Automatic annotation (TrEMBL):
Family under the similarity heading: Belongs to the aldo/keto reductase family.
Molecular function per GO: oxidoreductase activity, acting on the CH-OH group of donors, NAD or NADP as acceptor
InterPro entries in the record: AKR, Aldo/ket_reductase_CS, NAD(P)_OxRdtase_dom_sf, NADP_OxRdtase_dom
Catalytic residues (UniProt): Y48
Keyword Oxidoreductase: yes
Protein name, per record: Aldo/keto reductase
Binding site for substrate: H106
Keyword set, alphabetical order: NADP, Oxidoreductase
Domain NADP-dependent oxidoreductase: 14-257
Lowers pKa of active site Tyr (site feature) positions: K73
């Protein structure tokens, strides 16, 4: 199941996140399991220190490169025109790829506008298929839109049942920007996996709480990138396309929203 970004590129609604997966066999094997389980979106970042392992897994997977949507990001220490260009080339080399599908500014810090100019050039040169941001507020995105010709394709922010970003999603949609969720399970905070409302829905649909949360995000057309190092959970998290939450149950989850992030407030 895909959505189409404002660049015209199709992006899977469900992907595999690699934050906290260590460089080496753990990350490589987890990404391989994900690709063999059907995931086609793989999310990494320079900050995660595992781009090389992600690249090795992609090569070993036997999945065609054009079928895999790869996202990576650069840090505030690499903002600025020249630094952003160099950071991109480093990530491309680490991943062992000829192009990146989605390149993001990881945090709204440093010389954002010069960085975005560099990213626009990479996009127009075909080295990236889409460019976007992560952890940006709507005001920060608006400033980018006002001063540059390419509108961000994605804003990747903390989004889960306790921080639902409904108003942000409406505002992003009006600008043609896709909302993407990192930490879809809130990193287990606020006892998400013991929440009574989610447990009830888990029982009703005979699915895990994680599957219910991912299905809720997908039905909202929010891209989600759950992470796991456990093969069984990697498979389980992808098994969410054989059921659908009712409108009443979607509304029931809405009532869990606390209006602010538990991990990183935007």
């Amino acid at each position: 199941m895909n959505i189409t970004l404002n660049s015209g590129v199709k992006m899977p609604l469900l992907g595999f996140g690699t934050n906290l997966l260590r460089e080496g066999s753990q990350c490589e094997q987890s990404v391989l399991h994900a690709l063999h389980s059907g995931y086609r979106l793989i999310d990494t970042a320079a900050a995660y220190g595992n781009e090389e392992s992600v690249g090795k897994a992609i090569k070993k997977s036997s999945v065609k490169r054009e079928e895999i949507f790869v996202t990576t990001k650069f840090l505030p220490t690499d903002t600025g025109y020249e630094k952003a260009k160099r950071a991109f080339e480093t990530s491309l080399k680490n991943l062992g790829l000829d192009y990146i599908d989605l390149y993001l500014i990881h945090l709204p810090q440093g010389d954002i506008h010069s960085s975005w100019t560099a990213m626009e050039e990479l996009y127009k040169e075909g080295k990236v298929r889409a460019i976007g941001v992560s952890n940006f507020t709507m005001n920060q995105i608006q400033h980018l839109c006002e001063q540059h010709s390419v509108i961000p394709a994605v804003n990747q922010v903390e989004t889960h049942p306790f921080s639902q970003k409904a108003e942000m999603q409406k505002a992003l949609n009006s600008q043609g920007v896709q909302l993407e969720s990192w930490a879809p399970f809130a990193q287990g905070k606020n006892n998400l996996f013991r929440n009574e409302r989610l447990k009830a829905l888990s029982g009703k649909y005979n699915k895990s709480i994680a599957q219910v949360v991912l299905r809720w995000l997908i039905q909202r057309e929010v891209v989600a990138i759950p992470k796991s190092a456990t093969r069984e959970r990697i498979v389980e998290n992808f098994n969410v396309f054989d059921f659908e939450l009712s409108p009443d149950d979607m509304t029931a989850i809405q009532s869990l929203d606390k209006g602010s992030g538990l991990i990183y407030s935007v």
